[in-house]
Specification:
single chain, mainly beta, 35 strands
Amino acid sequence: QAAINATAGLKPLYINVGLVCTVTGLTVPANSHIVLDGTFFLKTGSGCQVIYITGSNVIIEGYGIVDGNTAGNPTPLGGKMLRGIDTVPGTAPNTNLHDITIRGITVQNVTNVCASFEGVLNGKFVDCTFKDSGNAAQIASGSEYCSFINCYFKNITDFAPAFYEGVSHCSAIGCKTDTCAAAGVLSDGPNVNYQWLPIHDITISGCVFNGQAGDYALWIINQTGNASTNPYNISISGNTFSNAGVSAICLTNTKGVVIAGNTISGGGTSGATWYGILVDTGNSNLVIDGNSISNGGQNGAILAVGVYFVAGCNTTCTGNLIFDDQISPTM
């Protein structure tokens, strides 16, 4: 901690390859630049964030590891949160931190949230790996112009990547997931400062979603019960979905979502119907165009459907290719 404080705003702090720093939680102030090629390992019994960013203009980069030591930190302590990389939360959009870049880092073995931007303006996770953790790698709480770029998510038992509560002009580009619960764009309302702000202008493009562990590979949903917070202007384009459970993409209480040029194939859950795209209730002004949907209904599923509308809504659905060339077709 002393080295971080001493170099902030002056010069980069280098943590060299092979160096393992056992920490009780690090606070990263404004204008810090950390080159992490070693490991920050959360000391057993610390019960807090491994890295807690409290100022703007921060860069943390390298090929190193942030390890939350799940076995040694099963529960948070003293009102803190067990997170790998975290930012101090603001109380309204654009009143918090800005210009934060996390590049090349692996975040692993975190009991709760793997990594989080909260109320951040212009934040980037670039070429990072998030794995073997309990909760989301997320952009949340009114963040704007933040992104996941070429990141990899594996074995996270929550939504990853995730966009929560009032975020806008954010994106996931060129990312890949393996066996996470799902990816999500979610208005779920637990944060009193952001729960009534709609999520909008989100782009998810060029990503690969493989073998999601939950029902849906990507779920866009408003759970607040207030239609004014429905996510809107969401673009889902050029992605590849494979081996989803119940559905590759599910929409619930959304408006202005464009699903275009995606490739969806395989997947299914025993005894259930599989849907390539599931349009649930409460949606409006959708575009579903130019998608390829094939060979669903595996793993003992009883039926497969390319695009399914639970309830009628204003939708343009054109140019989609839906087919089944399995030996025993299910679609």
